[in-house]
Write a structure and sequence with these properties.
There is one protein chain. It contains nine helices and nine strands. It is an alpha/beta fold. Strands 1, 2, 3, 4, 5, 6, 7, 8 and 9 form a nine-stranded mixed sheet that branches. The C terminus is likely disordered.
Length: about 425
């Protein structure tokens, strides 16, 4: 073999290595150029996935808010398996249906609509008629709870056939609400007005009221009380003439002081039980708060702030520009009669008459005590529940304890 040939074979590995090195650098260079492009593509894909997921989540959240009871999960275990899923209809409403035409009621289901529910007696027929006529002009559904057993006496009113009538003798507004306003039934209504019958509405307009409630973000509210009202139990409910809405009151008189440091009811985050207005989601919570066997509802007002879907000092308020007059007419239980507790017959003897209103107040006070005990027990037993207003409640309990102590001291001096 010649020397020339040997040299050429000897240099072959070096050339191959050189070519290999050059090719590697080319591939690595190509890969390095691709990295920014791939990073941009990955970021774009992640952004698209994020936006899609976020959109789907918001759609689901909105749907759940509008129709919180459409989920089949709420059915009793074992019942859903016996029916095909597509036939399950988990919601209902209070709209009237025609027997012979396709139309339902005068209320337009496609629009925003609301519910007025009232416990009524025939003695307040004229006043109730005035209230209902105002609400019907704003596309409200009306539901009347007849506590005196007289339902036929309303049939001469032109709107009577358009209202829902429920009758039960000597029952309260909260008794009716617990049994006939289940959240799944009233879920199509944006707002639920649960009112007493003795309210003057000369200075109240339902449409303007709802516009204010929505713009202010109030989940639980009430119209302010005209200062001329017969009964004003808490100063926070009294109308402030220069305001549209107020959420707190300042009052240094009386045993319960309301100052800028007060963060709980009845100084702020509080409405009274005579004319509360609930949003759909707030009523879902409030309905569960109503105790089935405590019919007078005493103590509920102090806890409604927990249903405000946020800070009760912001989500609960009193509307001043649309206000009502509380007439303070006590009709439930009737006028004082000579009747024994549990008896329906008149006592013809000269024994002192039993005041049924006094018996009602006694039961209401007892129910308040039971409700407070149940609340304390529930808080103690539910280890996972965190009270968002624990410090504020401690302040209120201290104020109430101090007031009771002063009363006992004054009673001892007398």
């Amino acid at each position: 073999m010649s020397m020339k040939t040997f040299k050429s074979w000897r240099w072959m590995p070096k050339k191959r290595n050189a070519l290999s090195d050059a090719g590697g650098q080319g591939i690595h260079g190509y890969r390095l150029k691709q990295l920014p492009f791939m990073a941009v593509v990955c970021m774009m894909m992640l952004f698209i996935v994020y936006r899609t997921t976020n959109f789907q989540y918001r759609e689901t959240e909105i749907e759940a808010d509008l129709h919180p009871f459409d989920s089949v999960k709420g059915l009793v275990a074992g019942k859903s398996d016996s029916l095909p899923r597509g036939i399950l209809h988990s919601r209902t409403d209070l709209e009237l249906s025609s027997l012979w035409s396709k139309s339902r009621s005068q209320v337009n289901i496609s629009n925003h609509h609301n519910l007025l529910a009232m416990a009524v007696g025939i003695k307040q027929k004229h006043n109730v008629d005035t209230i209902v006529n105002k609400f019907l002009t704003e596309n409200f559904t009306v539901m009347l709870f007849h506590y005196d057993g007289n339902m036929d006496g309303w049939s001469d009113l032109d709107w009577s056939n358009r209202a829902i009538h429920v009758m039960a003798q000597n029952q309260t507004k909260w008794w009716f609400a617990k049994r006939f306003l289940h959240p799944s039934i009233v879920s199509i209504y944006d707002y639920i007005f649960l009112w007493d019958e003795d309210l003057g509405v000369e200075n109240f307009h339902p449409g303007r009221y709802l516009d204010i409630v929505k713009s202010e973000g109030l989940e639980i509210s009430q119209p302010a009380l005209d200062p001329k009202s017969t009964d004003i139990h808490h100063k926070i409910t009294m109308r402030k003439s220069k305001k549209i809405v107020h959420r707190r009151v300042f009052d240094d008189r009386g045993s319960l002081k309301c100052s800028s440091s007060s963060n709980g009811p009845p100084c702020t985050g509080w409405v009274e039980g005579m004319a509360p207005v609930f949003s759909r989601i707030a009523w879902l919570c409030a309905w569960h708060l109503i105790q089935n066997d405590l019919v007078h509802g005493w103590g509920l007002d102090m806890k409604l702030g927990y249903c405000a879907q946020g800070d009760r000092t912001k989500k609960v308020g009193v509307v001043d520009s649309e206000y009502i007059l509380h007439q303070g007419i006590q009709t439930l239980g009737g006028s004082p009669k000579r009747t024994l507790p549990g008896s329906q017959e008149l006592v013809k003897t000269r024994r002192p008459a039993f005041d049924m209103r006094s018996w009602i107040r006694r039961k209401s006070t007892l129910e308040l005590q039971i409700f407070e005990e149940r609340w304390e027990k529930a808080v103690e037993e539910d280890r996972n529940w965190v009270d968002p207003y624990e410090k504020q409640n401690s302040w209120f309990i201290f104020q109430r304890y101090s007031r009771r102590r002063r009363r006992r001291t004054d009673g001892g001096r007398r």
